[in-house]
Amino acid sequence: MELVETLQQAVVGRTITNKYIDNVCARLGLARIHESMFTMPDSARLGMDDPLTEKLDYSKIKRDIVHISTSSREKALLLQALRWKLTKAKTDFKREKTLECFIGCDLLGCRSDLDQQTKIIKQLSSTTGGDTYYVKEEWARLINTIASLRKGRNYLSPNESLIICMQKAAMSETSDTLIKQHLLAALQKLSLKRSVQSLLINQNAIKWLIPLLSKTDRLSDYTLEYGVALLMNLCLRTNGRKKCTAIAEQAITVLSALLTHPNHETRPYVNSSLYSILTLKSIRDKAMQLNLDNRLRSIIQTEKTNSETKGQLEFLLNLLYKGGDQDNRQTSDNEQDNDDEDQDIMEADLDLGDKLRPSDKELSGEKLIIEHYASQKITNFQTSYNNILQSSSTNDPVLHRPITPGQLRYSKVAHTIDSFANNLSIGDIHNNHNDEYENKILTSSTKKSSSVNSTPIIPNDQEKDINNDFDQSTNIQKPTTPMKYSFSEPHRSNSNASMHSSVSSVIELNNENINKQS
User: Fold this and answer.
1) DSSP state of 333
2) Fewer CB under 10 Å: which end of the chain, C or N?
3) Rounded to an integer, what is the distance from CA 484 to the centroid of its chain?
4) 445 vs 82, which has greater pLDDT?
5) How many Cβ atoms are within 10 Å of 502's Cβ, its own excluded?
6) What angle do CA 50, 52, 58 make, to 5 degrees?
7) What are the residue boundaries of the structural domains of the chain, listed by start?
8) What's 133-153 look like in SS3?
9) Secondary structure class of 433 (helix, strand, coil)
Protein backbone atom coordinates (compact mmCIF):
# COMPACT_ATOMS: atom_id res chain seq x y z
CA MET A 1 0.00 0.00 0.00
CA GLU A 2 2.84 2.35 0.85
CA LEU A 3 4.48 1.75 -2.52
CA VAL A 4 1.19 2.48 -4.30
CA GLU A 5 0.86 5.78 -2.43
CA THR A 6 4.46 6.59 -3.30
CA LEU A 7 3.78 5.99 -7.00
CA GLN A 8 0.72 8.23 -6.81
CA GLN A 9 2.85 10.99 -5.31
CA ALA A 10 5.42 10.53 -8.06
CA VAL A 11 2.72 10.86 -10.73
CA VAL A 12 1.66 14.27 -9.40
CA GLY A 13 5.25 15.48 -9.52
CA ARG A 14 6.59 14.92 -6.03
CA THR A 15 10.28 13.95 -5.99
CA ILE A 16 10.94 10.52 -4.48
CA THR A 17 14.50 9.88 -3.32
CA ASN A 18 16.43 6.64 -3.74
CA LYS A 19 17.05 6.57 0.00
CA TYR A 20 13.31 6.57 0.64
CA ILE A 21 12.74 3.70 -1.81
CA ASP A 22 15.57 1.70 -0.19
CA ASN A 23 14.05 2.28 3.20
CA VAL A 24 10.57 1.17 2.12
CA CYS A 25 11.87 -1.98 0.43
CA ALA A 26 14.02 -2.85 3.40
CA ARG A 27 11.14 -2.42 5.80
CA LEU A 28 8.70 -4.39 3.67
CA GLY A 29 11.11 -7.27 3.10
CA LEU A 30 12.93 -7.46 6.40
CA ALA A 31 10.75 -5.90 9.09
CA ARG A 32 9.53 -9.21 10.48
CA ILE A 33 12.96 -10.81 10.36
CA HIS A 34 14.51 -7.76 12.02
CA GLU A 35 11.87 -7.70 14.76
CA SER A 36 12.20 -11.39 15.57
CA MET A 37 16.00 -11.26 15.55
CA PHE A 38 16.20 -8.65 18.29
CA THR A 39 13.91 -10.56 20.63
CA MET A 40 16.42 -13.42 20.67
CA PRO A 41 19.64 -13.89 22.64
CA ASP A 42 22.81 -12.64 20.95
CA SER A 43 24.08 -16.13 20.17
CA ALA A 44 20.86 -17.12 18.43
CA ARG A 45 20.53 -13.83 16.60
CA LEU A 46 23.98 -14.08 15.05
CA GLY A 47 23.00 -17.38 13.45
CA MET A 48 19.91 -16.02 11.72
CA ASP A 49 19.72 -16.06 7.94
CA ASP A 50 19.84 -12.30 7.59
CA PRO A 51 20.14 -11.40 3.88
CA LEU A 52 22.05 -8.21 4.63
CA THR A 53 24.94 -9.65 6.61
CA GLU A 54 27.49 -12.32 5.82
CA LYS A 55 27.49 -15.34 8.10
CA LEU A 56 30.76 -14.84 9.94
CA ASP A 57 32.33 -16.71 12.81
CA TYR A 58 32.52 -13.82 15.25
CA SER A 59 33.79 -16.03 18.05
CA LYS A 60 36.88 -16.75 15.95
CA ILE A 61 37.21 -13.08 14.99
CA LYS A 62 37.07 -12.03 18.65
CA ARG A 63 39.71 -14.59 19.55
CA ASP A 64 42.10 -13.75 16.72
CA ILE A 65 42.17 -9.96 17.31
CA VAL A 66 43.51 -10.46 20.84
CA HIS A 67 45.05 -13.95 21.04
CA ILE A 68 48.76 -14.30 21.61
CA SER A 69 49.04 -16.89 18.82
CA THR A 70 47.91 -14.33 16.23
CA SER A 71 50.85 -12.33 14.90
CA SER A 72 50.79 -8.55 15.14
CA ARG A 73 50.54 -8.25 11.39
CA GLU A 74 47.62 -10.66 11.21
CA LYS A 75 45.82 -8.71 13.93
CA ALA A 76 46.39 -5.42 12.13
CA LEU A 77 45.06 -6.74 8.81
CA LEU A 78 42.00 -8.24 10.53
CA LEU A 79 41.23 -4.98 12.36
CA GLN A 80 41.61 -3.10 9.09
CA ALA A 81 39.18 -5.49 7.38
CA LEU A 82 36.62 -5.04 10.16
CA ARG A 83 36.85 -1.25 9.84
CA TRP A 84 36.40 -1.43 6.08
CA LYS A 85 33.16 -3.36 6.58
CA LEU A 86 31.83 -0.14 8.10
CA THR A 87 33.59 2.57 6.10
CA LYS A 88 33.15 0.86 2.73
CA ALA A 89 29.59 -0.38 3.27
CA LYS A 90 27.47 0.37 0.21
CA THR A 91 24.41 1.49 2.17
CA ASP A 92 23.78 2.94 5.59
CA PHE A 93 21.39 0.04 6.26
CA LYS A 94 24.11 -2.54 5.56
CA ARG A 95 26.56 -0.56 7.71
CA GLU A 96 24.08 -0.55 10.57
CA LYS A 97 23.54 -4.31 10.27
CA THR A 98 27.29 -4.88 10.38
CA LEU A 99 27.66 -2.70 13.46
CA GLU A 100 24.82 -4.59 15.13
CA CYS A 101 26.77 -7.81 14.56
CA PHE A 102 29.88 -6.24 16.15
CA ILE A 103 27.81 -5.15 19.14
CA GLY A 104 25.88 -8.41 19.32
CA CYS A 105 29.05 -10.47 19.71
CA ASP A 106 30.51 -7.85 22.12
CA LEU A 107 33.54 -7.40 19.88
CA LEU A 108 35.31 -4.96 22.22
CA GLY A 109 34.07 -6.45 25.48
CA CYS A 110 32.10 -3.34 26.42
CA ARG A 111 29.10 -5.27 27.77
CA SER A 112 30.13 -8.33 29.70
CA ASP A 113 33.27 -9.89 28.19
CA LEU A 114 35.81 -8.48 30.66
CA ASP A 115 38.56 -10.78 29.42
CA GLN A 116 38.20 -9.39 25.88
CA GLN A 117 38.14 -5.85 27.25
CA THR A 118 41.30 -6.41 29.28
CA LYS A 119 43.22 -7.81 26.31
CA ILE A 120 42.22 -4.89 24.07
CA ILE A 121 43.26 -2.36 26.72
CA LYS A 122 46.60 -4.16 27.00
CA GLN A 123 47.17 -3.79 23.25
CA LEU A 124 46.29 -0.08 23.34
CA SER A 125 48.60 0.45 26.30
CA SER A 126 51.58 -1.36 24.81
CA THR A 127 54.65 0.38 23.48
CA THR A 128 54.80 0.65 19.71
CA GLY A 129 57.43 -0.74 17.41
CA GLY A 130 57.36 -2.61 14.13
CA ASP A 131 54.06 -4.32 13.42
CA THR A 132 52.77 -3.56 16.93
CA TYR A 133 52.46 0.07 15.84
CA TYR A 134 50.05 -0.97 13.11
CA VAL A 135 47.99 -2.97 15.62
CA LYS A 136 47.64 0.08 17.85
CA GLU A 137 46.83 2.35 14.92
CA GLU A 138 44.24 -0.05 13.53
CA TRP A 139 42.60 -0.29 16.94
CA ALA A 140 42.46 3.51 17.12
CA ARG A 141 40.94 3.71 13.64
CA LEU A 142 38.35 1.01 14.36
CA ILE A 143 37.28 2.59 17.66
CA ASN A 144 37.05 5.99 15.96
CA THR A 145 34.89 4.45 13.23
CA ILE A 146 32.54 2.78 15.70
CA ALA A 147 32.31 6.04 17.68
CA SER A 148 31.21 7.81 14.48
CA LEU A 149 27.88 5.98 14.71
CA ARG A 150 25.23 6.65 17.35
CA LYS A 151 24.75 2.95 18.15
CA GLY A 152 28.51 2.63 18.36
CA ARG A 153 28.72 5.45 20.90
CA ASN A 154 25.97 3.81 22.93
CA TYR A 155 28.03 0.62 22.91
CA LEU A 156 31.40 2.17 23.78
CA SER A 157 30.43 4.84 26.31
CA PRO A 158 29.75 2.55 29.33
CA ASN A 159 33.29 1.11 29.06
CA GLU A 160 35.08 3.57 31.35
CA SER A 161 38.26 1.50 31.49
CA LEU A 162 38.59 1.61 27.70
CA ILE A 163 37.94 5.38 27.56
CA ILE A 164 40.54 6.08 30.24
CA CYS A 165 42.98 3.85 28.36
CA MET A 166 42.25 5.74 25.13
CA GLN A 167 43.06 9.07 26.79
CA LYS A 168 46.28 7.75 28.32
CA ALA A 169 47.34 6.18 25.02
CA ALA A 170 46.73 9.45 23.17
CA MET A 171 48.67 11.40 25.81
CA SER A 172 51.58 8.97 25.59
CA GLU A 173 52.11 9.76 21.90
CA THR A 174 54.83 12.41 21.94
CA SER A 175 54.07 13.65 18.42
CA ASP A 176 50.91 14.10 16.39
CA THR A 177 50.75 10.50 15.20
CA LEU A 178 47.79 8.86 13.52
CA ILE A 179 47.22 6.93 16.73
CA LYS A 180 46.80 10.18 18.66
CA GLN A 181 44.59 11.68 15.97
CA HIS A 182 42.11 8.81 15.90
CA LEU A 183 41.99 8.29 19.65
CA LEU A 184 41.40 12.02 20.19
CA ALA A 185 38.67 12.05 17.55
CA ALA A 186 37.00 9.03 19.16
CA LEU A 187 37.10 10.70 22.57
CA GLN A 188 35.52 13.81 21.10
CA LYS A 189 32.68 11.83 19.54
CA LEU A 190 32.10 9.94 22.77
CA SER A 191 32.02 13.26 24.65
CA LEU A 192 28.50 13.75 23.33
CA LYS A 193 27.61 11.45 26.21
CA ARG A 194 27.36 13.28 29.52
CA SER A 195 28.77 10.29 31.37
CA VAL A 196 31.88 10.46 29.18
CA GLN A 197 32.15 14.23 29.68
CA SER A 198 32.14 13.73 33.44
CA LEU A 199 34.70 10.95 33.17
CA LEU A 200 37.08 12.99 31.00
CA ILE A 201 36.72 16.06 33.22
CA ASN A 202 37.60 13.97 36.27
CA GLN A 203 40.54 12.50 34.34
CA ASN A 204 41.88 16.07 33.84
CA ALA A 205 41.44 15.99 30.07
CA ILE A 206 41.21 19.80 30.01
CA LYS A 207 44.67 20.13 31.55
CA TRP A 208 45.95 17.88 28.76
CA LEU A 209 44.09 19.65 25.93
CA ILE A 210 45.11 23.24 26.71
CA PRO A 211 48.89 22.64 26.37
CA LEU A 212 48.26 20.38 23.37
CA LEU A 213 46.35 23.13 21.54
CA SER A 214 49.11 25.65 22.22
CA LYS A 215 51.36 23.83 19.72
CA THR A 216 49.31 24.50 16.61
CA ASP A 217 52.35 24.46 14.35
CA ARG A 218 52.87 20.78 15.23
CA LEU A 219 49.26 19.67 14.89
CA SER A 220 47.29 18.46 11.90
CA ASP A 221 43.99 20.16 11.12
CA TYR A 222 42.28 16.95 12.19
CA THR A 223 43.85 17.00 15.66
CA LEU A 224 43.30 20.73 16.06
CA GLU A 225 39.62 20.64 15.17
CA TYR A 226 38.79 17.60 17.25
CA GLY A 227 40.86 18.90 20.16
CA VAL A 228 39.09 22.27 20.23
CA ALA A 229 35.67 20.62 19.78
CA LEU A 230 36.39 18.27 22.70
CA LEU A 231 37.52 21.19 24.85
CA MET A 232 34.27 23.01 24.07
CA ASN A 233 32.15 20.01 25.06
CA LEU A 234 33.94 19.75 28.40
CA CYS A 235 33.86 23.50 29.09
CA LEU A 236 30.09 23.58 28.63
CA ARG A 237 29.87 21.62 31.89
CA THR A 238 30.06 23.42 35.24
CA ASN A 239 32.84 21.16 36.52
CA GLY A 240 34.73 21.66 33.28
CA ARG A 241 34.69 25.44 33.69
CA LYS A 242 35.82 25.08 37.29
CA LYS A 243 38.77 22.98 36.12
CA CYS A 244 39.83 25.93 33.95
CA THR A 245 40.15 28.27 36.94
CA ALA A 246 43.36 26.52 37.99
CA ILE A 247 44.91 27.15 34.57
CA ALA A 248 43.03 30.35 33.69
CA GLU A 249 46.02 32.25 32.34
CA GLN A 250 47.13 29.41 30.07
CA ALA A 251 43.57 28.75 28.89
CA ILE A 252 42.96 32.42 28.01
CA THR A 253 46.32 32.68 26.23
CA VAL A 254 45.76 29.55 24.12
CA LEU A 255 42.17 30.35 23.16
CA SER A 256 43.07 33.97 22.43
CA ALA A 257 45.75 32.79 20.00
CA LEU A 258 43.31 30.40 18.32
CA LEU A 259 40.92 33.28 17.58
CA THR A 260 43.03 34.20 14.57
CA HIS A 261 44.17 30.73 13.51
CA PRO A 262 43.95 30.29 9.72
CA ASN A 263 41.78 27.18 10.11
CA HIS A 264 38.37 28.85 10.28
CA GLU A 265 36.63 25.56 11.10
CA THR A 266 37.88 25.87 14.69
CA ARG A 267 36.32 29.27 15.36
CA PRO A 268 32.84 28.19 16.52
CA TYR A 269 34.48 25.87 19.04
CA VAL A 270 37.04 28.45 20.19
CA ASN A 271 34.41 31.16 20.61
CA SER A 272 32.13 28.84 22.55
CA SER A 273 34.95 27.64 24.81
CA LEU A 274 35.86 31.24 25.60
CA TYR A 275 32.26 32.15 26.27
CA SER A 276 31.84 29.20 28.63
CA ILE A 277 34.86 29.92 30.81
CA LEU A 278 34.33 33.71 30.77
CA THR A 279 31.03 33.22 32.57
CA LEU A 280 33.18 32.81 35.70
CA LYS A 281 34.24 36.14 37.20
CA SER A 282 37.66 34.91 38.31
CA ILE A 283 38.51 33.94 34.73
CA ARG A 284 37.13 37.24 33.37
CA ASP A 285 39.37 39.13 35.78
CA LYS A 286 42.37 37.17 34.56
CA ALA A 287 41.34 37.82 30.94
CA MET A 288 41.23 41.58 31.58
CA GLN A 289 44.72 41.40 33.09
CA LEU A 290 45.88 39.70 29.89
CA ASN A 291 44.25 42.44 27.75
CA LEU A 292 41.83 40.08 26.06
CA ASP A 293 39.43 43.01 25.60
CA ASN A 294 41.96 44.89 23.46
CA ARG A 295 42.65 41.78 21.39
CA LEU A 296 38.93 41.25 20.79
CA ARG A 297 38.51 44.88 19.67
CA SER A 298 41.42 44.52 17.27
CA ILE A 299 40.00 41.35 15.73
CA ILE A 300 36.51 42.85 15.46
CA GLN A 301 37.90 45.82 13.54
CA THR A 302 39.66 43.56 11.04
CA GLU A 303 36.85 40.98 10.73
CA LYS A 304 34.99 42.03 7.60
CA THR A 305 34.03 38.77 5.91
CA ASN A 306 32.06 36.84 8.53
CA SER A 307 29.32 38.80 10.25
CA GLU A 308 28.40 35.84 12.46
CA THR A 309 31.93 35.55 13.83
CA LYS A 310 32.05 39.29 14.35
CA GLY A 311 28.81 39.16 16.31
CA GLN A 312 30.16 36.40 18.55
CA LEU A 313 33.33 38.37 19.26
CA GLU A 314 31.29 41.44 20.17
CA PHE A 315 29.24 39.29 22.52
CA LEU A 316 32.44 38.05 24.18
CA LEU A 317 33.67 41.62 24.57
CA ASN A 318 30.43 42.65 26.28
CA LEU A 319 30.65 39.63 28.57
CA LEU A 320 34.06 40.75 29.82
CA TYR A 321 32.55 43.87 31.39
CA LYS A 322 29.77 42.12 33.29
CA GLY A 323 29.94 41.68 37.05
CA GLY A 324 29.64 38.45 39.00
CA ASP A 325 29.33 34.94 37.63
CA GLN A 326 27.15 34.64 34.53
CA ASP A 327 26.75 30.90 34.86
CA ASN A 328 22.95 30.88 34.89
CA ARG A 329 22.70 30.88 31.08
CA GLN A 330 24.84 27.79 30.67
CA THR A 331 23.45 24.32 30.09
CA SER A 332 22.31 22.43 33.15
CA ASP A 333 24.27 19.49 34.48
CA ASN A 334 20.97 17.63 34.61
CA GLU A 335 20.48 17.93 30.87
CA GLN A 336 20.24 14.75 28.81
CA ASP A 337 22.59 13.65 26.04
CA ASN A 338 22.45 15.50 22.70
CA ASP A 339 23.64 12.39 20.89
CA ASP A 340 20.47 11.85 18.87
CA GLU A 341 20.96 15.21 17.14
CA ASP A 342 24.07 14.07 15.28
CA GLN A 343 24.00 12.16 12.04
CA ASP A 344 25.93 8.98 11.34
CA ILE A 345 28.64 10.00 8.87
CA MET A 346 31.67 8.04 7.77
CA GLU A 347 34.53 10.50 7.43
CA ALA A 348 37.14 10.10 4.74
CA ASP A 349 39.79 10.53 7.45
CA LEU A 350 38.87 7.17 8.97
CA ASP A 351 40.70 5.46 6.10
CA LEU A 352 43.01 8.30 5.09
CA GLY A 353 46.75 7.76 5.50
CA ASP A 354 46.48 4.05 6.26
CA LYS A 355 49.82 2.61 5.15
CA LEU A 356 49.08 -0.99 6.09
CA ARG A 357 49.31 -3.03 2.88
CA PRO A 358 49.22 -6.81 2.43
CA SER A 359 52.18 -8.60 0.94
CA ASP A 360 51.81 -10.81 -2.13
CA LYS A 361 50.94 -13.83 0.00
CA GLU A 362 48.60 -12.03 2.41
CA LEU A 363 44.87 -11.40 2.18
CA SER A 364 43.17 -8.20 3.26
CA GLY A 365 39.75 -6.65 3.47
CA GLU A 366 36.71 -8.63 2.38
CA LYS A 367 38.85 -11.43 0.91
CA LEU A 368 40.47 -11.98 4.30
CA ILE A 369 37.10 -12.01 6.07
CA ILE A 370 35.45 -14.43 3.64
CA GLU A 371 38.44 -16.77 3.39
CA HIS A 372 39.06 -17.21 7.12
CA TYR A 373 35.86 -16.27 8.93
CA ALA A 374 32.86 -17.07 6.72
CA SER A 375 30.82 -19.70 8.55
CA GLN A 376 28.23 -20.00 5.77
CA LYS A 377 28.29 -19.29 2.07
CA ILE A 378 26.38 -16.24 0.91
CA THR A 379 23.06 -17.26 -0.61
CA ASN A 380 21.93 -16.17 -4.05
CA PHE A 381 19.12 -14.18 -2.45
CA GLN A 382 21.58 -12.29 -0.28
CA THR A 383 23.90 -11.56 -3.19
CA SER A 384 21.00 -10.40 -5.34
CA TYR A 385 19.52 -8.24 -2.59
CA ASN A 386 22.88 -6.66 -1.76
CA ASN A 387 23.49 -5.90 -5.43
CA ILE A 388 20.12 -4.17 -5.66
CA LEU A 389 20.92 -2.04 -2.63
CA GLN A 390 24.40 -1.29 -3.95
CA SER A 391 23.11 -0.10 -7.29
CA SER A 392 20.37 2.02 -5.73
CA SER A 393 22.71 3.61 -3.22
CA THR A 394 25.23 5.09 -5.60
CA ASN A 395 23.25 8.29 -5.67
CA ASP A 396 23.29 8.64 -1.87
CA PRO A 397 25.58 11.61 -1.16
CA VAL A 398 25.63 10.96 2.59
CA LEU A 399 27.09 7.50 2.26
CA HIS A 400 29.60 8.23 -0.46
CA ARG A 401 30.60 11.79 0.34
CA PRO A 402 31.64 11.61 4.00
CA ILE A 403 32.40 14.97 5.59
CA THR A 404 34.87 15.68 8.39
CA PRO A 405 35.18 18.83 10.51
CA GLY A 406 38.05 19.78 8.26
CA GLN A 407 36.36 18.94 5.00
CA LEU A 408 36.31 22.63 4.10
CA ARG A 409 40.08 22.32 3.93
CA TYR A 410 40.96 20.38 0.80
CA SER A 411 39.97 16.72 0.60
CA LYS A 412 37.79 14.46 -1.44
CA VAL A 413 39.88 11.55 -0.32
CA ALA A 414 40.51 7.93 0.45
CA HIS A 415 37.55 5.60 0.25
CA THR A 416 35.30 8.15 -1.52
CA ILE A 417 37.26 7.64 -4.74
CA ASP A 418 35.60 4.31 -5.53
CA SER A 419 32.11 5.68 -4.98
CA PHE A 420 32.98 8.74 -7.09
CA ALA A 421 33.94 6.41 -9.94
CA ASN A 422 30.66 4.56 -9.50
CA ASN A 423 28.77 7.83 -9.77
CA LEU A 424 30.59 8.66 -13.00
CA SER A 425 29.55 5.33 -14.47
CA ILE A 426 25.96 5.94 -13.42
CA GLY A 427 26.21 9.31 -15.13
CA ASP A 428 27.29 7.58 -18.33
CA ILE A 429 24.26 5.29 -18.11
CA HIS A 430 21.96 8.27 -17.76
CA ASN A 431 23.69 9.94 -20.69
CA ASN A 432 23.07 6.84 -22.78
CA HIS A 433 19.41 6.79 -21.75
CA ASN A 434 19.04 10.45 -22.64
CA ASP A 435 20.76 9.88 -25.99
CA GLU A 436 18.37 6.99 -26.73
CA TYR A 437 15.43 9.16 -25.77
CA GLU A 438 16.61 11.95 -28.06
CA ASN A 439 17.22 9.50 -30.91
CA LYS A 440 13.68 8.19 -30.57
CA ILE A 441 12.36 11.73 -30.72
CA LEU A 442 14.40 12.54 -33.83
CA THR A 443 13.39 9.28 -35.52
CA SER A 444 9.76 9.90 -34.74
CA SER A 445 9.95 13.45 -36.04
CA THR A 446 11.40 12.41 -39.41
CA LYS A 447 8.53 9.99 -39.99
CA LYS A 448 5.97 12.74 -39.47
CA SER A 449 5.36 15.98 -41.24
CA SER A 450 8.19 18.46 -41.21
CA SER A 451 5.86 21.15 -39.88
CA VAL A 452 6.75 22.85 -36.63
CA ASN A 453 3.56 21.60 -34.98
CA SER A 454 4.51 17.96 -35.53
CA THR A 455 7.92 18.26 -33.86
CA PRO A 456 7.92 16.42 -30.54
CA ILE A 457 8.40 18.75 -27.60
CA ILE A 458 9.30 17.55 -24.13
CA PRO A 459 6.97 19.17 -21.59
CA ASN A 460 8.75 21.57 -19.23
CA ASP A 461 7.92 19.53 -16.14
CA GLN A 462 9.14 16.30 -17.75
CA GLU A 463 12.31 17.94 -18.99
CA LYS A 464 13.04 19.29 -15.53
CA ASP A 465 12.42 15.86 -14.00
CA ILE A 466 14.86 14.29 -16.47
CA ASN A 467 17.48 16.93 -15.78
CA ASN A 468 16.84 16.69 -12.07
CA ASP A 469 17.30 12.90 -12.13
CA PHE A 470 20.49 13.27 -14.10
CA ASP A 471 21.85 15.95 -11.77
CA GLN A 472 21.12 13.82 -8.73
CA SER A 473 22.80 10.77 -10.24
CA THR A 474 26.06 12.62 -10.78
CA ASN A 475 25.83 14.86 -7.75
CA ILE A 476 29.02 15.41 -5.79
CA GLN A 477 28.48 16.32 -2.16
CA LYS A 478 29.68 19.82 -1.38
CA PRO A 479 30.84 20.64 2.13
CA THR A 480 27.92 22.05 4.05
CA THR A 481 28.26 25.44 5.64
CA PRO A 482 29.23 25.79 9.31
CA MET A 483 26.40 25.56 11.79
CA LYS A 484 24.60 28.62 12.99
CA TYR A 485 25.74 29.24 16.54
CA SER A 486 24.00 30.98 19.39
CA PHE A 487 25.84 31.79 22.58
CA SER A 488 22.55 32.01 24.43
CA GLU A 489 21.93 28.36 23.65
CA PRO A 490 25.29 26.54 23.57
CA HIS A 491 25.28 23.47 21.38
CA ARG A 492 27.39 20.53 22.40
CA SER A 493 29.43 19.52 19.42
CA ASN A 494 30.12 16.27 17.68
CA SER A 495 32.96 15.92 15.20
CA ASN A 496 30.53 16.90 12.47
CA ALA A 497 28.67 19.59 14.37
CA SER A 498 29.85 22.38 12.10
CA MET A 499 28.56 20.41 9.15
CA HIS A 500 25.02 19.56 10.32
CA SER A 501 22.45 19.23 7.58
CA SER A 502 18.91 17.90 7.35
CA VAL A 503 18.32 15.58 4.42
CA SER A 504 14.59 16.10 4.59
CA SER A 505 15.01 19.88 4.64
CA VAL A 506 17.30 19.77 1.65
CA ILE A 507 14.79 17.64 -0.28
CA GLU A 508 11.93 19.97 0.58
CA LEU A 509 13.97 23.02 -0.39
CA ASN A 510 14.97 21.40 -3.67
CA ASN A 511 11.37 20.48 -4.49
CA GLU A 512 10.23 24.00 -3.60
CA ASN A 513 12.82 25.50 -5.95
CA ILE A 514 11.66 23.18 -8.75
CA ASN A 515 8.05 24.25 -8.22
CA LYS A 516 9.03 27.93 -8.32
CA GLN A 517 10.93 27.42 -11.56
CA SER A 518 7.91 25.65 -13.05
Assistant:
1) T
2) N
3) 19
4) 82
5) 10
6) 70
7) 1-39
8) HHHHHHHHHHHHHHHCCHHHH
9) helix
